[in-house]
């Protein structure tokens, strides 16, 4: 089996896994719907109770989980190349901190639902602009400078978050903590987030070859004629915007953007033309699996999905890493 055939086989396998988990997510919950009823509900217009549960409750939630996981995994893959740091994730530059501060402030003012999500999005954009402005001074912008600026801004946001949690009342505190851990229980059909994911994918795939060159070092990239600053800025903007959208939908879900790109590289190599699409599929799949556990483990009570992204992602990654380095 040659490399192209092998890659196609793995691509079909990952797509099939994503499809299986999606159907499972529609079937499993506090009320289990048989798989045959799931398929009947998809292809039939009957007014059965199962159809109402699937289309009005589970499908928006499942699709939100997939889109959020895909956005975070894409952002993580971009950040790791941009910063040339294996510990980079979508939140390392403080985007999630700005989103969290804005969301928590809106909750303290009595906002709910879409207003919290909107506040989180604009808070993330504010943090992105702040990091970009401080790190990009008179054209001097290195990976180390960007990383240090992002870490400092993130630490500042963390202090503000601690302050807000300290002064909030007990009624608000539970909702704030739930949002900080990350959840898709209240998510609507993610039309805007889905469009952002598709647009980001269209923009990033032509950039993947340049990212391959950039990952080998700035000097080599410059020698080969790559416009390094343009690629860096484009990568930073794409990673930050996708993170902002994901956070506005589900809060600060951890580990997906850190673990999934590494997992894909361990399995399929470091070519970003492969890493980014596979990260999108596996990131979305991990989020859907985590959401299934979050709403079934102690049903009817539901847990934050962010707890289970780490429970699922970290052990698998550590096992694969151990085997990879063992070889």
Summarize the amount of helix as a percent range: over 70%
User: Can you tell me the residue ranges where pLDDT is under 50 for at least 5 consecutive residues?
Assistant: none
| Number of domain modules | 1
- By CATH's scheme, which homologous superfamily applies? ABC transporter involved in vitamin B12 uptake, BtuC
The major beta sheet can be summarized as:
none
What is the CA–CA distance across the termini? 21 Å
Number of helices: 14
The dominant shape is globular
CATH architecture: Orthogonal Bundle
Specify the CATH class: Mainly Alpha
* Quaternary structure classification: single chain
What do the pLDDT scores average to?
84
By helix and strand content, what is the structural category? mainly alpha
* Helix/strand order, N-terminal first: HHHHHHHHHHHHHH
Write a compact overview of the structure shown.
This protein is mainly α.
Would you kindly provide a written description of the structure presented here, covering whatever features stand out?
The model has no long low-confidence stretch (mean pLDDT 84). Helix 3 (49-83) runs antiparallel to helix 11. By secondary structure, this protein is an all-alpha fold. The two termini are 21 Å apart. 77% of the residues lie in helices and 0% in strands. It is globular, with a radius of gyration of 20 Å. The longest helix is centred in the N-terminal third of the chain and has 35 residues, at 49-83. The protein has helices spanning 3-27, 35-43, 49-83, 95-108, 114-135, 143-167, 170-181, 191-204, 208-214, 218-223, 228-250, 256-268, 272-296, 305-326. The chain has one domain: ABC transporter involved in vitamin B12 uptake, BtuC (Orthogonal Bundle).
């Amino acid at each position: 089996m040659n490399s192209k055939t092998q890659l196609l086989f793995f691509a079909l396998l990952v797509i099939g896994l994503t499809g299986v988990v999606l159907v499972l997510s529609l079937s499993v919950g506090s009320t289990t719907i048989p798989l045959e009823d799931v398929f009947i509900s998809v292809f039939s217009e009957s007014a059965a109770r199962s159809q109402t549960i699937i289309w009005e409750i589970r499908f928006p939630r499942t699709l939100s989980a997939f889109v959020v996981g895909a956005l975070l995994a894409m952002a993580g893959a971009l950040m790791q190349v941009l910063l040339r740091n294996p510990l980079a994730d979508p939140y390392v530059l403080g985007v999630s901190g700005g989103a969290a501060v804005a969301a928590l402030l809106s909750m303290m003012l009595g906002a709910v639902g879409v207003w919290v999500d909107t506040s989180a999005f604009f808070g993330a954009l504010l943090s992105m602009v702040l990091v970009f402005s401080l790190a990009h001074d008179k054209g001097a912008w290195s990976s180390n400078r960007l990383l240090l600026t992002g870490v400092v801004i993130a630490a500042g946001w963390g202090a503000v978050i601690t302050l807000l949690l300290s002064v909030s009342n007990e009624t608000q505190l539970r909702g704030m903590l739930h949002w900080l851990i990350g959840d898709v229980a209240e998510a609507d059909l993610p039309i805007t987030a889905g469009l952002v994911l598709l647009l980001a994918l269209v923009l990033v795939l032509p950039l993947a070859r340049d990212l391959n060159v950039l990952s080998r070092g700035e000097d080599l990239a410059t020698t080969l004629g790559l416009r390094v600053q343009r690629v860096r800025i484009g990568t930073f903007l794409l990673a930050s915007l996708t993170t902002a959208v994901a956070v506005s939908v589900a809060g600060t879900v951890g580990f997906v953007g850190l673990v999934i790109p590494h997992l894909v590289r361990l399995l399929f190599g470091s070519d970003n033309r492969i890493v980014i699409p596979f990260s999108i599929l596996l990131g979305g799949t991990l989020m859907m699996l985590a959401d299934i556990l979050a709403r079934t483990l102690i049903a009817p009570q539901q847990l934050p999905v962010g707890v289970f992204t780490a429970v699922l992602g970290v052990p698998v990654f550590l096992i694969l890493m151990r085997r990879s380095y063992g070889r």
